[in-house]
C-alpha cells in the first residue's frame, strides 16, 4: 500500500521545489547581479555604493508597479514612460511655483487614467492602441509645458529623495516599502483579489456581482497614482526635468513586471517580484556593465542579453514544472 | 441601401474616409492650394508605413501578445548595411538591397528563435533583440553619414504623373500580400493560428513553420524599409526607424486588424497610413507647434479607435 504513495509524494515534493524555485527566481536573478558586481568590484557593496548604484531604482520601481496594475487587468500601458516624463515637467514647474495648481494637475492626471480604464472597458478597446495614442498626448503636453530641458524640482522633493537613513541605503528601504504596500494592497485585501480576478476570470467576477467597470478604472487609477509618484521621485533625484526624460520607462517597466514573474494574461502578477525585477533592471542597466568594462556601444546589447538569459532560465524552470 | 451597407460594413473604409476628411480640412485651410502636392507627399511617406505595417499586420494576426518591437532597430541596421554595401556605386544597388533583406531576415529569424526555443513572450523577446541590434548598429555604422548612390536616391524619389513610383510598387506589393493572406496556405494558417492556436494545431496546421515564416517576413520587410528610407532621405542613420515602432502598430490597428489576432485587413493598412500622414500634413499646414501636433495626433488616435469600437464579444 505504501509503495505507490511514495513516488507520488516524491513528485509532489519535486513540484513544490520547482514552484518555490520559480517564485524565488526574481530574487535569485537580483542576487546574481549583485554577486557579479561584488565579484567585479567589492568596494561597491557598501552603504554609499548601493546608494549610488540604485540611484534611479525608486522611480523605476514605482513605474514598474504602475505597469503591474495595468498588466494585472490583461492590459498594457505603452504611455507610462511619456506620462512619467510629463509628471516630471509638472513637478519641476507648476508644483514648485504654484503648489495648488501643480497638485490639482497631478490629481487630474490620475482621474484621466481612471477614465481611460473605464473607456477601455466600456467600449472594449485594445489598451495598446489607446495608450499608444495617450503616449503622444503626454509627450506633447510635456513639450508644451517645458519646450527646453529645465525647471527645478521643489526643495522638499529634493530633500525627500536625498534622505540618508542609518544602516540601510534609502533606495533599498524605499523599494521594500513600495513592495510591501503593493503586496498588501493587491494580494492581501479583498478588493485586491477582485482586481486580480478582473484579469484572471472577468466573467466569474461579474457573475459574483462586482462591477468590472469599477475594477478596470481602479486598476488604471492605481497605475496613474504610481506613475505620478514615479515622476515626482525621478525629478526629485535629477532636480530638473526634460520632456523626454521618462521615455525609456515604458519598456523598462514592462520588462520589470515580466522579470518579476508576471504574465501578460490571466491577472498573474507579483508586486514583490515586480519591485525585485525593477531593481535587477536598474542594477543591470549601468553599474554592472560599467564594472564589467563593457564599451558604451555594447551596453544596450548587454542589457538585452541579461533580459534574455533571465527569462530563458525562468521558462526552463516553468516548463519542467508543467511536464511531470 | 444594401450596397451602401456592404461598403460601410467593411472595416477599412473608415480609415480611407478619415484620410479624405483630413485632406479636405487641410485644403480648406489653404484655400485649395497645394492639394495635389499634399497627396503626392502623403503617398511617398505612407509607403514606408505600409511596408512595415504589412509585416506587423501578419505578426499581430498570429494572436494575442504577438508583436514585433524590433522594427526600429532592424530598420536602422538595414539602412546602414544597405548604404555600406552600395558604397555610393549605382552598380551595387541590387547587392545592397539584397544585403538589407538578409540583415532583416537575420533579425526575423533571431526573433523567432528567441520566441520558439526559449519560449520568451514575443513582446519581451523582440524588445531584447532590438537592444542587441541597436548596439550592433551603433558599432557598425558609427559616426558615418553614409550616402546612397545617386541612381538609387533618384529611384526612391521618382514620380509618374504626380504618383511616386514607390507608392505604385507598394500598392502592387500590398495587393500581393492581400492575396497571400486570403488565398495561400500560409496566409490562412496565420489567420487560423490567431483565432485559436490549439484548434489550429489539432486541425493539422503546421503552426511553427507558419510562425517562423511570419517573423522572418516581418524582419525582411523591416530590412527593405531601411534601405528604401535611406534612399528616400538620402542617407542612413541609427535613428531613421524610430518613428516606425508606434506607426507600424497604429496603422495595423486603425486599419481594422484585430489586436487580439485572427482577423487581418490589408486595405486598411493603406488607409490608416494615408490617414496618419495626412493628419500630420494637416497639422503642419495649420502651423501648430510640435507639442500641439503630438497632443492632437494622440487624441485623434484615441477618438478614432473609440468611434470604431472594439470587437464584439460574440463572434
Give your account of this protein's structure.
The complex is a heterodimer of chains A (324) and B (315). In chain A, 77% of the residues lie in helices and 0% in strands. Chain A has 324 residues and is mostly helical. Chain A is globular and about 55 Å long. Chain B has 315 residues and is an all-alpha fold. Chain B has a single domain (12-310), classed as Orthogonal Bundle (ABC transporter involved in vitamin B12 uptake, BtuC), CATH 1.10.3470. Chain B is built from 14 helices and two strands. In chain B, strands 1-2 form a two-stranded antiparallel sheet. In chain B, helix 2 (13-30) runs parallel beside helix 13, helix 4 packs antiparallel against helix 5 (93-117) and helix 5 runs antiparallel to helix 6. The radius of gyration of chain B is 20 Å and the shape is globular. The chains are: A mainly alpha (324), B mainly alpha (315).
Order of strands, widest sheet of chain B: 1-2
What percent of residues of chain A are in strands? under 5%
Classify the beta-strand content of chain B into a percent band: under 5%
CATH topology (level 3) name of chain B:
ABC transporter involved in vitamin B12 uptake, BtuC
Distance between the termini of chain A: 22 Å
Q: Rg of chain B from C-alpha positions?
A: 20 Å
Distance between the termini of chain B: 24 Å
Which structural class matches the secondary elements of chain A? mainly alpha
* Helix count from the secondary structure assignment of chain A: 16
Number-wise, the strands of chain A total 0
Low-confidence stretches of chain A: 1-11
Largest two-chain interface: A-B, 45 and 52 residues
Q: Number of domains in the coordinates of chain B? A: 1
Amino acid at each position: 500500500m505504501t509503495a505507490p504513495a511514495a513516488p507520488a509524494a516524491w513528485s509532489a515534493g519535486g513540484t513544490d521545489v520547482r514552484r518555490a524555485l520559480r517564485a524565488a527566481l526574481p530574487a535569485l536573478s537580483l542576487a546574481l547581479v549583485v554577486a557579479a558586481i561584488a565579484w567585479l568590484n567589492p568596494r561597491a557593496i557598501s552603504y554609499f555604493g548601493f546608494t549610488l548604484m540604485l540611484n534611479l531604482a525608486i522611480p523605476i520601481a514605482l513605474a514598474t508597479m504602475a505597469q503591474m496594475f495595468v498588466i494585472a487587468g490583461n492590459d498594457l500601458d505603452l504611455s507610462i514612460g511619456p506620462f512619467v516624463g510629463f509628471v516630471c515637467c509638472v513637478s519641476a514647474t507648476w508644483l514648485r511655483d504654484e503648489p495648488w495648481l501643480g497638485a490639482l494637475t497631478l490629481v487630474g492626471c490620475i482621474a484621466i487614467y481612471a477614465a481611460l480604464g473605464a473607456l477601455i472597458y466600456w467600449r472594449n478597446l485594445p489598451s495598446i492602441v489607446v495608450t499608444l495614442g495617450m503616449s503622444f498626448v503626454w509627450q506633447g503636453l510635456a513639450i508644451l509645458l517645458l519646450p527646453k530641458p529645465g525647471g527645478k524640482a521643489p526643495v522638499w522633493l529634493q530633500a525627500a529623495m536625498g534622505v540618508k537613513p542609518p544602516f540601510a541605503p534609502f533606495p533599498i528601504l524605499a523599494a521594500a516599502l513600495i513592495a510591501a504596500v503593493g503586496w498588501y494592497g493587491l494580494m492581501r485585501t479583498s478588493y485586491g483579489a477582485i482586481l486580480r480576478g478582473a484579469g484572471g476570470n472577468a466573467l466569474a467576477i461579474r457573475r459574483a456581482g462586482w462591477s468590472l467597470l469599477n475594477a478596470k478604472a481602479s486598476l488604471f487609477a492605481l497605475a496613474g497614482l504610481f506613475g505620478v509618484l514615479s515622476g515626482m521621485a525621478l525629478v526629485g533625484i535629477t532636480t530638473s526635468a526634460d520632456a523626454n526624460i521618462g521615455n525609456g520607462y515604458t519598456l523598462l517597466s514592462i520588462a520589470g513586471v515580466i522579470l518579476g514573474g508576471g504574465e501578460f494574461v490571466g491577472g498573474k502578477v507579483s508586486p514583490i517580484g515586480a519591485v525585485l525585477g525593477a531593481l535587477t533592471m536598474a542594477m543591470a542597466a549601468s553599474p554592472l556593465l560599467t564594472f564589467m568594462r563593457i564599451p558604451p556601444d555594447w551596453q544596450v546589447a548587454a542589457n538585452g542579453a541579461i533580459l534574455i538569459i533571465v527569462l530563458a532560465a525562468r521558462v526552463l524552470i516553468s516548463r519542467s514544472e508543467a511536464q511531470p | 441601401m444594401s450596397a451602401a451597407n456592404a461598403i460601410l460594413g467593411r472595416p477599412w473604409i473608415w480609415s480611407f474616409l478619415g484620410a479624405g476628411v483630413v485632406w479636405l480640412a487641410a485644403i480648406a485651410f489653404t484655400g485649395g492650394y497645394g492639394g495635389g502636392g499634399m497627396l503626392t507627399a502623403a503617398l511617398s511617406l505612407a509607403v514606408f508605413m505600409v511596408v512595415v505595417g504589412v509585416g506587423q499586420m501578419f505578426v499581430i494576426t498570429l494572436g494575442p501578445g504577438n508583436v514585433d518591437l524590433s522594427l526600429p532597430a532592424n530598420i536602422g541596421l538595414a539602412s546602414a548595411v544597405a548604404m555600406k554595401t552600395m558604397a555610393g556605386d549605382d552598380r551595387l544597388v541590387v547587392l545592397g538591397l539584397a544585403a538589407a533583406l538578409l540583415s532583416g531576415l537575420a533579425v526575423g529569424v533571431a526573433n523567432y528563435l528567441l520566441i520558439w526555443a526559449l519560449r520568451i513572450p514575443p513582446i519581451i523577446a523582440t524588445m531584447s533583440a532590438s537592444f542587441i541590434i541597436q548596439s550592433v548598429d551603433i558599432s557598425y555604422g558609427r559616426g558615418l553619414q553614409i550616402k546612397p548612390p545617386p541612381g538609387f536616391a533618384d529611384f526612391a524619389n521618382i514620380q509618374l504623373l504626380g504618383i511616386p513610383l514607390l507608392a505604385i510598387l507598394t500598392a502592387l506589393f500590398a495587393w500581393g500580400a492581400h492575396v497571400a493572406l486570403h488565398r495561400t496556405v500560409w496566409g490562412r494558417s496565420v489567420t487560423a493560428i490567431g483565432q485559436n492556436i490549439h484548434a489550429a494545431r489539432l486541425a493539422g496546421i503546421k503552426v511553427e513553420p507558419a510562425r517562423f515564416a511570419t517573423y522572418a517576413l516581418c524582419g525582411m520587410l523591416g530590412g527593405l524599409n531601411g534601405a528604401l528610407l535611406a534612399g528616400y532621405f538620402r542617407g542612413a542613420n541609427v535613428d531613421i526607424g524610430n518613428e516606425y515602432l508606434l506607426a507600424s502598430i497604429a496603422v495595423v490597428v486603425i486599419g481594422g486588424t484585430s489586436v487580439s489576432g485572427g482577423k487581418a485587413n490589408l486595405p486598411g493598412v493603406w488607409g490608416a497610413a494615408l490617414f496618419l500622414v495626412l493628419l500630420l500634413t494637416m497639422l503642419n499646414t495649420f502651423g501648430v507647434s510640435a507639442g500641439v501636433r503630438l497632443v492632437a495626433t494622440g487624441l485623434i488616435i484615441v477618438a478614432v479607435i473609440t468611434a470604431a469600437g472594439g470587437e464584439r464579444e460574440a463572434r
